[in-house]
């Protein structure tokens, strides 16, 4: 059976960079959006020419804030994608669209959403982060809670029935009750999918500078974990499946694109700084926008680095990403990832082969099992809810 394949497209422009954001993005007003769009379309054509299997199951347009692009620019990008690749009729096509960037007036927003529908976009992912206006201002967001409610209402009017809302918790000064109040207001909007992330302080951000100068302190780990578990419980009560460490969905609405990352499927990445995984090799594009535009303009792919995965790279990545899923990783899938890059054939069972490869990790893994943090059975292994709290330590056994 053919494995699934996705496309990721990076749009590195924002109206304003948030105080916690370390993503690759630039000011939408002063950046060369038109030139970038043209270069992006050319990169799509160049890579398509080198791609044998062009059948695509999912498309994800991320950023930055892709919704700051003009409708005509986005239309050109998706037209080029469809021209160069075979997009499945029922493909999941997602765009990240922060509140207040789809249009200040209802009529403008409705027209933009209608254009998205015509382009085949069928899933919106909105970075809400909080429903408290003071906290939104502190985070550096440009929208208000009122914008979120309006945008959701108008999206429903235009027929969007697959919506994700992001929430950030453990914001300095925020109590667990504050976070749950945010969550309750997001649940009340009835999105099909909710992503919940603990605030991470990244280098070279305003928040990192505030921490360095003693102007702010991070939420204590114990409080962060208590809030996380309370969020998990509240979402389960509301009918959402907890299917990945940070992701919750109503039945049938798991993110099909993000699932590609967690099960080692191929995905082709386009755009500045974008990273892809195809034909058992990983690559990353240049992060210099001038170099990106120039390189593509000369008819060359803008790759900064690329390397082929070894068999151990594959199985290690499969376990690391697979353990993020609530179902965990099966021995069969892990060994299949290993065999994808191996020229040898071993006839032992997947379970025997798995623990032969990770024999040095087995004793410590069994200790985590005894502590109720990891479940190991005849099919594979998965984290318990308590194990999620130290997931990086457990995952590191298999790296």
SS elements, strand count:
17
CATH fold topology of the largest domain? TIM Barrel
CATH architecture of the largest domain: Alpha-Beta Barrel
The portion of residues forming beta strands comes to 15-25%
Strand order in space, largest sheet = 9-10-8-7-6-5-4-1-11
Regarding CATH, which class of the largest domain? Alpha Beta
Largest sheet: 9 strands, mixed
- Give unreliable regions as ranges: none
Rg over alpha carbons: 22 Å
Q: CATH superfamily name of the largest domain?
A: Aldolase class I
Number of helices: 15
Query: How far is the first residue's CA from the last residue's CA?
Result: 29 Å
What do you see in this structure?
- The model has no long low-confidence stretch (mean pLDDT 94).
- Helix 2 (71-84) links the parallel strand 4 and strand 5 (86-96).
- The protein has 399 residues and is α/β, with parallel strands linked by helices.
- The strands form four sheets. Strands 9-10-8-7-6-5-4-1-11 form a nine-stranded mixed β-sheet, with helices on both faces. A three-stranded antiparallel β-sheet has the order 12-13-14, with no helix packed on it.
- It has two domains: 5-262, Aldolase class I (TIM Barrel, Alpha-Beta Barrel); 311-399, Arc Repressor Mutant, subunit A, CATH 1.10.10.920.
- The protein starts with a strand and ends with a helix.
- The chain contains 15 helices and 17 strands.
